[in-house]
Amino acid sequence: MKYEVGSTVEGKVTGIKPFGAFVALDDQHQGLVHISEVSHDYVKDINDHLSVGDTVEVKVMNVEEDSGKISLSIRKTQAAPEPKQQRPRRKRPAQNDNNTQGFNTLEDKLKSWLKESNDRQAQLNKRLKK
Question: In the chain, fewer beta carbons within 10 Å around the N or the C end?
Answer without folding.
Answer: C
